Amino acid sequence: MGKQIAGYKMQLACFRHLQDLRRVENKLDNFKYEYDLKKVDSILNFAAVCPDVDAGEPLPLMPWQKFMLLQVIAWRDQYNNKRFTEGYISVGRKQGKTYLMAIISSYSFFVEGYGLFNQDYLLASNTADQSTKLFSYVSFMMQYLIDTNDFFGQIALDENIEVQANRVIAKNQVNRLVKISNESGKYDSYHFTNAIYDESGDEKAGKYTSRIITGQADVKNHQFLKISTAYEFLNTEFYNDIKRSVENMERDYDRTSENELCLVWSQDNENEVYQPETWVKSNPLMDLPGKKAKKTSDLITLRDTMINKGKLNEFQNKNMNIYLQVNTDSYLKLNDVEKAIIPKFTLAARPVYIGFDYSLFSDNTALAFLFPYLDGDKRRWFIYQHSFIPWQKAGSIDAKEKQDGINYRELEKQGYCSITRHPQGIINGDQVYSWLTNFVEDNQLDVLCFGYDAMGATTFTKRLEQNTEWNILPVKQRTGELKDPTKFLQTGFIEGSIKRFDDKIMEKALLNAQIYEDKVGIQVDKAKATLKIDVVDALIDALYQGMYHFEDFAEVNDPSKQVERMSAEQVAEYIKSGKFGFGGD
User: Fold this and answer.
1) What is the rounded CA–CA span in Å between residue 31 and residue 26?
2) Alpha-carbon dihedral angle through residues 250, 251, 253, 254, given to the nearest 10 degrees
3) CATH of 82-264, one of 3.90.1150.10, 3.40.50.720, 3.40.50.360, 3.40.50.300
4) Are the CB atoms for 128 and 199 separated by under 8 Å?
5) pLDDT at 61
6) What's the pLDDT tens digit per position in 305-328?
7) Which residues pair with 225 in a beta bridge?
8) CATH class of the domain at 334-343+351-546
């Protein structure tokens, strides 16, 4: 077949497939899966008679479509159940993903469900209209097979199958295929053999998916497929599923999961918007024989129209299937936030600027640490944070996690946060103080400045003033004071001078932040109260002084200020060094 242009994520999926075929061939004891060639023939033969809804008749499948179907159906475990119990499938807009899901749903009901009893099958989406669209594809396909194919017509007679307005039922076997929207959320009474959730990238989609998954626990040969084009929402269950799965495929030598399938047809970067020859990565239907020139021309016209409307990012999001912030007020882009990640950085025995954003109730309290350092002759700033998580307003830490979309209990294990120990779930000032002072002492940090919101945490900061030698600096939270550090942080991410760990709390805060502008300057804000940007506020407070660290006029480079921060022993050593002009020993 020759070469095929493919994006990085699809290359990973193909690499995983080839590696697993080698594992099967070499009969590795710890690999318990088989690629069942009978299932390959079964699903391809079935798909060959399934009609395309628009054409009204079966159409030949393209290689990428076959690959998707075979990954879903043909990989099996040692009990001949489907290997991939959960799958995440994403492709650009108008690429026929709903048609392929209709094939899988119909195959599951007609072929795999034949002779079984009390089986539940699901077609779900966020709204009633969305779930109805997917159901209309499936019901049309099933009725077509019953009416035109003797084999499936006989199955329909044997099982007394009826394709109804809102469901498909096999009366003799008491099997049922239902459509349910997230608006109703009525998943609890079902145990789905096959479940398909359309538009899973929407931020509403994760609300009830756990009910689907837990209901499948004891169901033989079960599978849950989430499908979607990229959305502008970044901290969603679907986006995090894909990100986790990509990392798992990258660690082929040390996979953490063998039962999650990830197939993503997408561009590799935003700049490919000006490279139409690469668009087949996210729009695989462009390779339809005789259609490429027309489809390319149509997409170029759409791109240019979106540019003229100032909405190029929406084209990149939906038609190139790239996750990115499409809101024009967004403070940072996803790519800039992700490229700042580095695997390791030694915090100990370094100068540091600390920023503090304090809250008593529903908002998190955040400590941000800014470590200036040189990478050769290049100025760099490493940022680190630790948040304190209240749950009083949410009612419980479980409810707080669902509200914020962050697994705080897991991140606490990783060291990025502390859940409040206060019995009423509010911020515990003693806990924050102890953590901070212990962290500084344990890592032998040289605190150059502690910046905080001038309107808050006065008791806390007075305690620091009394018990430390730190430079405690109140920062007024207005654009005139914040515009420079706000711009510095943004520019640092864009230019690559700011680095960080893969910390989900920090990432979500950075992506939640939006730009607020007035006649004086800019500062960060958030679109709604439930979005967390506490870490960003704390980082900007740390940068108020920290952004000048390498400048001659910075306080840290003023000899008199250096002496003020020294202990008696350090002063004596400094005098001996001769830097005050007193001579040597």
Assistant:
1) 10
2) -150
3) 3.40.50.300
4) no
5) 96
6) 999 998 898 999 999 999 876 566
7) 87, 196
8) alpha beta
